[in-house]
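Section 5: illustrative case.
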């Protein structure tokens, strides 16, 4: 299943390990390190980064959507998969 992370950008749900807030120092360091390694994907379309998605391939994806918004989308996908809708 795929999750829309904003502006038409999608990520495979099975590859997501975590969705975190970008404000803490460790997350800023993680973002900088990913940039140096060539593992940073900026999907913000020039807007403020509101969440960081960490994948199992060690990629860091920046999104302009709030963590809560992405979580709602993931939960909706899970409900559809479970047949609750």
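Designed sequence:
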């Amino acid at each position: 299943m795929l999750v829309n992370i904003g502006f038409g950008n999608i990520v495979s749900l099975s590859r997501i390990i975590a969705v975190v807030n970008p404000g803490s120092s460790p997350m800023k360091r993680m973002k900088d390190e990913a940039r140096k390694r060539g593992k940073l994907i900026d999907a913000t379309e020039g807007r403020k980064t509101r969440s960081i998605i960490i994948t199992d391939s060690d990629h860091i994806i920046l999104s302009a959507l709030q963590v809560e918004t992405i979580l709602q989308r993931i939960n909706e996908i899970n409900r559809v998969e479970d047949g609750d809708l």
